[in-house]
Amino acid sequence: MKPPSLTVRLSLLFAVSTVALLLGLGWTLERAVALHFRELDHHEIAGKLALVRNLLGRATTPAALASLPADLEAALVGHPGLALRVQASDGRVRFVSARGQLPPGTASARSGSGQPEDLLWVRWNEGPRAFRGLIARVPVGVPLQTRDARTAGMAEPPSDTVAIGLDISHHQAFMAEFRRILVLAMLLAAAVAAALGWAVTHAGLRPLRRITALAADLDASRLGARLPETRVPPEIKSLVVAFNAMLARLQDSFQRLSDVSADIAHELRTPISNLTLQTQVALNAARDADQYREVLYSSLEEYERMGQMIGNMLFLARADHGLLHPTADVLDLAAQVWDLFDYFDAWAEERGVSLRLTGSACARADPLMLRRALSNLLSNAIRHTGAGQQVRVRLDDDGRGVRILVENPGSPLSAEQAARLFERFYRADPARSRRGETAGSGTGLGLAIVKSIVEAHGGTVAAASSAGCTRFTVILPSAHPHSAAQAPAHSAGT
Amino acid sequence: MKILIVEDEPKTGDYLRQGLTEAGFIVDLAREGFDGLHLAAGGDYDLLVLDVMLPGLDGWQVLSGVRRKDPDLPVLFLTARDQVDDRVKGLELGADDYLIKPFAFAELLARVRTLLRRGRSASEPTVLRVADLELDLLRRRVLRGGRRIELTAKEYALLELFMRRCGEVLPRSLIASSVWDMNFDSDTNVVDVAVRRLRLKVDEGFEPRLIQTVRGMGYVLDTPE
Description:
The complex is a heterodimer.
Chain A: H1 6-58, H2 62-66, H3 68-75, E1 82-87, E2 93-96, E3 119-126, E4 129-139, H4 147-150, E5 159-167, H5 169-204, H6 206-217, H7 234-283, H8 289-320, E6 329-332, H9 333-350, E7 354-358, E8 362-365, H10 367-383, E9 390-397, E10 401-409, H11 415-420, H12 446-456, E11 460-466, E12 469-477, H13 481-485, H14 487-493
Parallel strand pairs in A: 7-9
Antiparallel strand pairs in A: 1-2, 1-5, 3-4, 4-5, 6-8, 9-10, 10-12, 11-12
Chain B: E1 2-6, H1 10-22, E2 26-30, H2 33-42, E3 47-51, H3 59-69, E4 75-79, H4 84-92, E5 97-100, H5 105-117, E6 127-130, E7 133-136, E8 141-144, E9 147-149, H6 153-164, H7 172-179, H8 190-202, E10 211-214, E11 218-221
Helix pairs in contact in B: 2-3
């Protein structure tokens, strides 16, 4: 499923949160209004009850009792929705209002045995109409002012049952209308919120669209372009910075790739133009067999150089694609280095360079690959060492990794040069390049191959230059076959 | 000695045939897999040189077909794919050796001779002789014109290689791999230096000069005609 656009997402979230907020607010408002109406109703009913209580309390004489219905009738004037019924304790109905609805169960005559509660609020519906009311017992013939004194211990005076009903349908109707308006307002607000959210998001995301447009403009030929890091909101800034960093890395590897292609083209163009030239010159005139043979020999040398370079490039390409799968044999590095010294011995001696090894270590590595890497490091060191000087190899194992140091006295290198030594075709000394001091020497790939091999083993290689000494440091994962397996045997033996 | 080459690349096939013929072998050439298998079944060959990438049957299929009929026929694989998998597969299927393209012709010739020599385990000589140069394998002693020559261990190994393969041009890579076990191209002239030093001890002051440089190919120890 396609993920929704950021604008739609934000608008929806905006609308949903607005509706949630309004729902809460509406519910509180509705509750408050409903409570207020209940208060009003109660107030009105309680007012009528006080009136009735007052009239009944003052009816201390039969004459007063007789005039009671008239008084009550007068009290109900102007209250069409109000119903009143007063029943004496002996079941006799003293008064019933003509209109209105009484609380259910009070309209019929009742026996005096079941005394109702002192005061009981009721709420009921009659068809579409709603009512609120109360049923109360009101003492007869006890004026309000003396009532407190009576409670001190006098006998219970006779009390009437008063029922009051109030039509509250108009309040209910208002509440219904109020709720309808609330819902409508909420729907409208949600729609407005969504629209506003869309507009706000759309405007808010403008910097993002600008960045996107800029990014879309980039292509391989314009990798140097960068997105502006100033004038972008902080939220996007980290994205822009990350994007720029990615561009820089891309540009770097792209540059390196095209450098390598250019280098290959250049490295191959020189021998090929040599070959073409000498063949053309050779064919220009009739020559004897020796001269033709000379041309062929010369060609052969160039072919070998090219073949070797292509072989090395292929090796590096395989390394780049993670196709080197070194074995993990346990190797005695000192023995490996001695073998290499043995190999380079005559050559080094001829150049007046001595070789020296100190320390020992064991590593887990592919013997063939490691030998190739060390051979390249050594031949590089020997080649750059002056007569009468020494190439030193030091081995040690600090428990975390095996270190192989190859040091030779040599011209100082800048840190930048040292870092670039492992790049393909890089030559720290341009004058040395392609001088061809020995047949097939220095394709400019030896150290790049060292790096590939070491990294395929999970190790690192670095070059540094200090005090007229060039030092290559290879760090390989350590192997502890002897310390682990032979330590007990040693202690047992001695 | 009869050799069958199965190689589809026209130039490679032609030059291999020419080179091996001029080296004194009887050579047949098949351009594709079915022909190769057919020829191998009929002809009485001493060695099969097989390209991996072939039309029709590929090198692997030809190899297993050949192996079914003649399990002992030496087979040399040529592969352009510089891949360990190929080598492992080839060697598992019973190839005796392989060469990765591009290879030096001298290297191919040396490998071919090694494979052909294998199996013919004639009684091992204890003394190798070329002209007045004598190498005593048992006593590890070298004499030239009756005079004792002192050699280092590696010089001795190098001379032994030259004398065992007297008359064969040995490419530098083969020398490095046989004497020092360096199985990769080195960008140094270590082998040249070593051969030069050996030559100083073995040839300096003697006639004829036995160790000769073959330009563009390697070195050979031989009596000059």
